[in-house]
């Protein structure tokens, strides 16, 4: 139906998460109406991202330098490390503007059925960082079977270290309804309950 190069572009847009056939078609047709200058800029941004961005040597976050902007920030509390599954999780945490510590990216979670074992994750460098003097390690893996397994595994390793190990609270989201929540979410909501105080 479309010329080969346009069909090819549509197929590439379909690789993006949440982009179906119709949206991919719309994006591809939009590119035809976009100026040559903007297309060149778009292509350059894609190539630059792939070429210039790698993982921070300290924490595993996205970075264009050897160390990421968070690890370079002298105002951050380096004695509190928040452990996350992927660099994308750091972006979500930073949007809250509540956390002023540093991060450590595991690059995944333990999942024997997918062939991912502890030695496949960025765990040894976390232990080296903890040995350099850390007050608290916050385990912020997702509330999935694999995320919980990984958190429990790390908590066991950290028992031998001289630091506090905590787990982020999980429970019902704002606006959530009990009758829509799964059992694990409700269990975590009960475990993370807090006393209500009248000030």
UniProtKB/TrEMBL annotation:
A zinc finger (C4-type) spans 56-71. One of its GO terms (biological process) is DNA repair. Keywords: DNA damage, DNA recombination, DNA repair, Metal-binding, Zinc, Zinc-finger. GO terms for molecular function: DNA binding; zinc ion binding. It comes from the Bacteria. It holds the Pfam family RecR_C. Residues 79-173 form the Toprim domain. Transmembrane segments: none annotated. InterPro entries: DNA_Rcmb_RecR (IPR000093), Rcmb_RecR (IPR023627), Rcmb_RecR_Znf (IPR015967), TOPRIM_dom (IPR006171), TOPRIM_RecR (IPR034137). May play a role in DNA repair. It seems to be involved in an RecBC-independent recombinational process of DNA repair. It may act with RecF and RecO. Belongs to the RecR family. This is Recombination protein RecR.
